[in-house]
């Protein structure tokens, strides 16, 4: 089937300009930092970057704003986030355009990313009236024992290209209602959507009368991130990206007794049991493995299939992979857009060759597409590979659409294989056997932060906490009580009697 042509870089530049203009964001042009698009792999605009002095000034301003913001009542702080949510709704289409242009997401997923931002704003507004502390029964007469939650300080947000706006909003919406101020260092690959988000938040701040410096954006490279990591005025560093990055950030922040919240790599698996509804499983697997061109931290990377159904399932997946429409993410029929860069394609090829050298069999996909139309872009068919064992390469996260298929005989063996990777983000089981599902969700089952039944590993909704264990970094963001990471608690003992009673029965004087 012939697919519609890719847009040209000029067309994409114009479309990005229109979106930014409608949003009202001013793009400070003329630096040597290039905004680029993976749709053609070419540059869009040059932008200036933050210097060390800019970063220092941003931290000073953010700290000053914090001193006001922390005493603003939380429900009033919620008004800022409510307004941000309204502006995101109003500009949803243009924001999604920027996500597509810079991150290569298909329209439906780009719109989904903006929806996820609106959802977290609504969640955070509700939270602004629910920052609950507990009252604890005191052992002493005439005493009240309570826990209170206070704003923490300046939060440094370091985000990745693949959710260039939603992950920022998870952190920012929650941090703001918690009374913190935010400095954002986005991925170097997605500066335009960051400028748009920063502009909308600044506008919301003006409209509700919040200090402008509750949020600062710093476009720049590693040096900006390093300053946020090392500066003791930054109370919390929330970093999303590779495990490699987290291994540097975590210890450096800890060395100054700062807090970090890490959301790192995943190597997510699904177990497909003999009783699984295969129609449902095929749909769930293909979205989780090939959606977002395999570039979600929750992407399905390993399939652990019961031997009795492996051939049938593999046949159905091979057929589905063969039909995946790959091309311009602006084309409504496309399901797989480009990889973020040629480097990502190289990493994918290296992983596939390593697995093949170990005896892995490619069942579908793996060919580069559109290399003539867009030589600098990286369009590729998602690849399905049958492997005999979980070797080192299978245990690594390759940020590309590769799905390794393994087989199992007993559930115990499947769970052991499932957990035998360094990462622990997301997981799922497809089964109609309730006992199997419950075992998978139990303490002896999946060791991940997210464990699902009859749904793939990706596409978590706002409300639940998001994050994972082991090399994934241990952080929890967005939903549930993840807000506590953005606040500090204080335990208060109040004596309203006239006696000085000491705890543990101690007597003195
Ligand atoms: C990420 O890939 O960094 O659960 C976040 C999901 C999305 C978020 C992914 N809601 O796939």
At a glance:
The protein has 15 helices and 23 strands.
Explained architecture:
One of its GO terms (molecular function) is aldehyde dehydrogenase (NAD+) activity. This is aldehyde dehydrogenase (NAD(+)). The protein starts with 8 loop residues before the first helix and ends in a 14-residue tail after the last strand. A 7-stranded mixed sheet has the order 12-15-16-11-10-18-19, with helices on both faces. Strands 7-6-5-8-9 form a 5-stranded parallel sheet, with helices on both faces. A 3-stranded antiparallel sheet has the order 3-4-23, with no helix packed on it. The model has no long low-confidence stretch (mean pLDDT about 95). It has 15 helices and 23 strands. Helix content is about 40%, strand content about 20%. The chain folds into 2 domains: about 10-265 and about 475-490, Aldehyde Dehydrogenase, Chain A, domain 1, CATH 3.40.605.10; about 270-465, 3-Layer(aba) Sandwich (Aldehyde Dehydrogenase, Chain A, domain 2). It is globular and about 80 Å long. With about 500 residues, the protein is an alpha/beta fold. The chain has helices at about 10-25, 50-70, 75-90, 90-105, 105-125, 165-175, 190-210, 220-230, 245-255, 280-290, 305-320, 340-355, 390-395, 410-420, 435-440; strands spanning about 35, 40-45, 135, 145-150, 155-160, 180-185, 215, 235-240, 260-265, 270, 300-305, 360-365, 370, 380, 385, 400-410, 425, 425-430, 450-455, 465, 470, 475-480, 485-495. 2-aminohexanedioic acid binds near residues 116, 167, 296, 297 and 460.
């Amino acid at each position: 089937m012939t697919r519609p042509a890719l847009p040209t870089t000029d067309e994409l530049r114009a479309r990005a300009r229109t979106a930014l203009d409608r949003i009202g964001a001013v793009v400070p042009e003329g630096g040597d930092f290039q905004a680029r698009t993976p749709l053609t792999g070419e540059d869009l605009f040059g932008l200036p970057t933050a210097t060390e002095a800019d970063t220092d000034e941003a931290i000073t301003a953010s700290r000053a704003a914090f001193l006001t913001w922390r005493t603003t009542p939380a429900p009033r702080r919620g008004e800022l986030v409510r307004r941000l949510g309204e502006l995101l709704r109003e500009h949803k289409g243009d924001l999604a355009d920027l996500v597509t242009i810079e991150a290569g997401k298909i329209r439906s997923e780009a719109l989904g990313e903006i929806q996820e931002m609106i959802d977290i704003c609504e969640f955070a507004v509700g939270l602004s009236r629910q920052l609950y502390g507990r009252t604890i029964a005191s052992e002493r007469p005439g005493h009240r024992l309570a826990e209170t939650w206070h704003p923490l300080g300046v939060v440094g947000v370091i985000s990745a290209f693949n959710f260039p706006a939603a992950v920022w909003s998870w952190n920012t919406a929650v941090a703001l209602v918690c009374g913190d101020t935010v400095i954002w260092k986005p991925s170097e690959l997605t500066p335009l959507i960051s400028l748009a988000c920063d502009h909308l938040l600044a506008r919301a701040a003006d409209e509700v009368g919040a200090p402008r410096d509750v949020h600062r954006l710093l476009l720049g490279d590693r040096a900006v991130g390093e300053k946020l990591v090392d500066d003791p005025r930054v109370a919390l560093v929330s970093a999303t990206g590779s495990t490699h990055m987290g291994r540097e950030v975590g210890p450096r922040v800890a060395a100054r007794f700062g807090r970090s919240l890490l959301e790192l790599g995943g190597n997510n698996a699904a177990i497909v049991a003999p009783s699984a509804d295969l129609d449902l499983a095929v749909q769930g697997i293909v979205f989780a493995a090939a959606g977002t061109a395999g570039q979600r931290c929750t992407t399905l990377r390993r399939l652990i299939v019961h031997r009795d159904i492996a051939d049938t399932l593999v046949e159905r997946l091979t057929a589905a992979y063969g039909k995946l429409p790959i091309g311009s993410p602006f084309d409504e029929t496309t399901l797989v857009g480009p990889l973020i860069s040629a480097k990502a394609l190289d990493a994918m090829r290296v992983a596939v060759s390593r697995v093949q050298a170990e005896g892995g069999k490619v069942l579908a996909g793996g060919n580069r597409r559109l290399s003539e139309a867009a030589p600098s872009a990286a369009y590729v068919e998602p690849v399905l590979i049958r492997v005999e064992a979980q070797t080192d390469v299978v245990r690594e996260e390759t940020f590309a659409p590769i799905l390794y298929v393994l087989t199992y005989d007993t559930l115990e063996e499947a769970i052991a294989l499932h957990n035998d990777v360094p990462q622990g983000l997301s997981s799922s089981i497809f089964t109609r056997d309730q006992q199997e599902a419950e075992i998978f969700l139990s303490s002896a089952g999946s060791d991940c932060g997210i464990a699902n039944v009859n749904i793939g590993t990706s596409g978590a909704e706002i409300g639940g906490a998001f994050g994972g264990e082991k090399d994934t970094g241990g952080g929890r963001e967005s939903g549930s009580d993840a807000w506590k990471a953005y606040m500090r608690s204080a335990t208060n003992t109040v004596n309203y009697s006239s006696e000085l009673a000491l705890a543990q029965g101690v007597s003195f004087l």
